[in-house]
UniProtKB/TrEMBL annotation:
Residues 1-365 form the UDENN domain. It comes from the Eukaryota. The lineage of its organism: Eukaryota, Metazoa, Chordata, Craniata, Vertebrata. This is DENN domain-containing protein 11. InterPro entries: DENND11/AVL9_GEFs, LCHN/Anr2, Tripartite_DENN. PANTHER family: DENN DOMAIN-CONTAINING PROTEIN 11, LATE SECRETORY PATHWAY PROTEIN AVL9-RELATED. It comes from Saguinus oedipus. The keyword Mitochondrion does not apply. The keyword NADP does not apply. Keywords: Guanine-nucleotide releasing factor. Belongs to the DENND11 family.
Length: 365
């Protein structure tokens, strides 16, 4: 893989030639891929065209991509990139459209200092259609969230707990990788908290999107991330992740996290409520044509409300006289006092919340 052309010419693109073309892509016709490069996020569109050329070994493969300080606007240029990669395959060496695009957009894509941290705090709004979460907002093909729910089923509640604990989550899948990048994003959406004073001591839930062996060094120093890969070798490198997702199989090699892999009654209840709300949303869209909340907002809001309820309770208990968290509190937070005991202990430790858990550990017979 090599970088054939770029603007500006002095930008450090080391490794981008592997990030923008997922390992194993030669087996597919087209794909798109989100990735991280230093402080930037990238989106590239890949295409593969058969050619009668011995030099190119019967196939011409290219990716055309862009880098931006934020991934939330990249989707707007997906269509342009798809068209351009076809153009580059059919007419190699013609870069005028790309140069014009860069000249037009470079002001937008310029990385301003501290831009990410200057966003206003987001507080929960009960009405879905007015709800916007600026940093996480990203537009997917219709039904991306419902595909995520359909794909993982009840296991999204397991992913939710790991995401809230800011564990290092790595999702493996063979190409195409575009849809898997969306799963990374959906995973991050599970962990939003909008209460002031929460999360100051814990790393932000940041999507790394696609990673490959060239990223091993940078992943070694990360304490929290959600990423995806097409390279099976990562499974053996257990020091790089806490949670490994292979297809629909969520697993962890840490003994203390094993209890979190079990679905409990409170998880089933949350999953039932989520599906119930989705059905109501579909019904309201049919009945009231002018009422147009989107399923993505419902999904993000469902987990944001759930997370806020948990942390609101924990903060109230930590501010009380005896700082005692009971089974009643756990049920009030929508958790299973026994099944979620270990999750609660991890949560208190991760967020540095000072309360005493007085939920008995069930005795072994």
């Amino acid at each position: 893989n090599m970088v054939e052309w770029c603007l500006p010419q002095d930008i450090d693109l080391e490794g981008v030639e592997f990030k923008s073309m997922a390992s194993g892509s030669h087996k597919i016709q087209s794909d798109f891929i989100y990735f991280r490069k230093g402080p930037f996020f990238g989106l590239a569109c890949f295409a593969n065209m058969p050619v009668e050329s011995e030099l190119e070994r019967g196939a011409r493969m290219k990716s055309v991509g862009i880098l931006s300080p934020s991934y939330t606007l990249l989707y707007r240029y997906m269509h342009f990139l798809e068209n351009q990669v076809r153009h580059q395959l059919e007419m190699p060496g013609h870069y005028s459209h790309l140069a014009a695009f860069y000249e037009d957009k470079k002001g937008v894509l310029h990385a301003g200092p501290g831009r990410g941290s200057s966003l206003p705090p987001v507080y929960w709004l009960p009405s879905i259609h007015r709800y916007m979460y600026p940093e996480m907002k990203i537009t997917h093909p219709a039904g991306c969230m419902s595909q995520f729910i359909k794909f993982f089923g009840e296991q999204i509640l397991i992913l939710w707990k790991f995401a809230l604990l800011r564990k290092r989550i790595l999702i493996f899948s063979p190409p195409p990788v575009g849809v898997v990048c969306y799963r990374v994003y959906c995973c991050c959406c599970l962990a939003n908290v909008s209460l002031p004073g929460i999360g100051g001591t814990i790393p932000e839930s940041k999507p790394f999107f696609y990673v490959n062996v060239a990223d091993i060094e940078s992943l070694e120093v990360e304490v929290s991330y959600v990423a995806c890969t097409t390279e099976k070798i990562f499974e053996e490198k257990r020091e790089l992740y806490d949670v490994y997702v292979d297809n629909q199989n969520v697993k962890t090699h840490h003994d203390h996290l094993q209890p979190l892999l079990k679905i409990n009654s409170a998880d089933r209840e949350k999953y039932r409520r989520l599906n119930e709300q989705r059905q109501m949303l579909l019904y309201s869209q049919e009945v009231e044509e002018d009422y147009n909340p989107c399923e993505e907002d419902l999904f993000v809001l469902f987990f944001l409300e759930q997370n806020n309820r948990i942390f609101q309770t924990l903060l109230e208990v930590s501010a009380s006289q005896d700082k005692t968290l009971t089974a009643e509190h756990a049920r009030g937070m929508g958790l299973d006092p026994q099944g979620d005991r270990s999750f609660l202990l991890d949560l208190l430790e991760a967020y540095g919340i000072d309360v005493m858990l007085v939920i008995d550990n069930p005795c072994c017979p």
